[in-house]
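User: Write out your own:

AI:
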Amino acid sequence: MILLFAALSVTVLAGGKQQTETRPSVAVAPRPMAEKRPSAAEATQSEAEAPQQEAEVLFSRHFTGATLRLDYVFCGDAGHQAIYLQGMSRTGVWAGRRHNLSRALLRGNGLVRVKDPASGAVLYENSFSTLFQEWQGYEEARHVQKAFENCLQVPFPRDTVDIEVLLSDAHAKVTARLEHRVVPQDILIRQVQDNLHHRHTLKEGGPVEKTIDIVILSEGYTAAQEEKFFADAARARDALLGHEPFASRSDAFSIRAVFAPSQADGPSIPHLGKWNNTLTDSHFDTFYSERYLTTSALQKVWDAVGTVPFEHIIVLVNTPVYGGGGIYNSVTIMGSDHPTFPQVLVHEFGHAFGGLGDEYFYGEQAETPYPADTEPWEPNLTTLKDFASKWQDMLPPGTPVPTPTDELEKQDVRKIWDTLSADEKALLNHRVGVYEGAGYQAKGVYRPVQECRMKINECEEFCPVCTRALVRMIDYYCGE
C-alpha cells in the first residue's frame, strides 16, 4: 500500500507549486453605500453586521457551500515523516467557519492551507494535531515505521486551488510537507451519499454556518442498543453544555447524534485478549497504555458520519471501563458508562476543541515533549520562552515567577478534594500563577493554577486561563 500511495503522491506533486511563505492578503469588495441615511440604532446594527457580511462575501468568492474531505496517510518513524494523499470526497454542507479564513487561532502540530495557485495567497487555514505525531514520541517509533490515517476538511473551492499540508515537531520546525492541486471538476472526487444512519438533533443552535457543529457517533453499540446510545449521547450533551464556559455560550453550539450499529458490544481490550468487530475498530492499550482508548480508523469514522455537517466529532464508545482521548481538531473518544464520564469528556473535549494541554506531570523523564527552547502552542502551558504570549497579563501584581505551591499541594489533593472548603478550592483553582510541573514534565513546563479540570478529574472547573482560551476559541469560530 505504501508504494501505491507514493505513486499517487508523485502524480499529485507534479502539478503542484514550490513552497512559499508569501501570504498576501485577499482584497474584500467594498460594501455598497446605503441610499438613505440610517437611524442611530440601524447604524449601530450595521456596524456590528459589517464584518460578518464582508466575511461572507469573501467566503462566497472562493468557496461553495460544500465540504472537501481530504484523506491522507501520515507515516514514518521517530526520525522522519511523510504525507501521502489517499483520496478526496465532496460531502454535504460546509459547517466550518466562514470568517477568520486565512489564519488558525493556534499553531497546533500541523496545518492545512488552501492557496490561490496564481498569487500564493492563503484562502483558508486550519491547524490540527495527530495520533501519529504523538506516537513518534514513544520508544516504538525508534524501531519501526508506521502509517496512520488522517482526514481533514476544507471548504469546497469554486476554482482550482493548491492544498498544502504541513507537520511540525516539538520545536515548531516543519518536518513534512505535501502540496497538491485540486481541480473542482475532477471526476475522481467522490460524491459522498447519505448513508441513512439514524440521527437525532440533540441541540439546535441555529444554521450550520452560524454555530459550532458537533456530531456524536456510536461505537460498540449493537443494533439492539440504539436507544441506549441516544440516551448516552444526551448525557454527553448535558455534560458539555452543563460546564462553563460552554454553559454560558450554549447558543453557539449545535449537537447531533448519529447511530451506526456495530457487530459487537464494546471496544476491543487487547491486554485481555478481547478483539471485537466494531464500527470504528476502537481499542484500549493504545501505545501499550491500558487506559488509552482510541481509534486509528479515522476514515471509518468520517464515513459513518457521512453527510451530517460537523466541525468536531465525539466517538462515544459503549463501555463501563475508564478511558478516552482527545486530539486537537481531530477526534474526541470516550467510554460511556464509567462514573467519571462527565468530567473526563469535558477534559478530553478541552484538548480536541480548545487545544488545551494536560496540566498533570510525572517524575523525571528522559524525553521532553516540551523542549525549553520552544514555547508550547497550547494556551495553558508555558516553558517561559515566550510567556508574554500566554497568561502573563492575568498574573496578580507581585506574583513570583515561578510561583511556589501552597501547603495543600504537598498532599495528594485528589484524595482530599471533597473535604476542602470552597475557599480552599478557589485558592487552588482560581489563583493564577506560574506553577512548575505540566505537560507530563515535572521540570521546565509551567501551568497557570495548582489544580484545574485539565489536571485532575476531581476539580470541577476550568481555571481562568483555560476558560479564557476556550472563550477565545468559541469567539473565533463564531466570528466575534
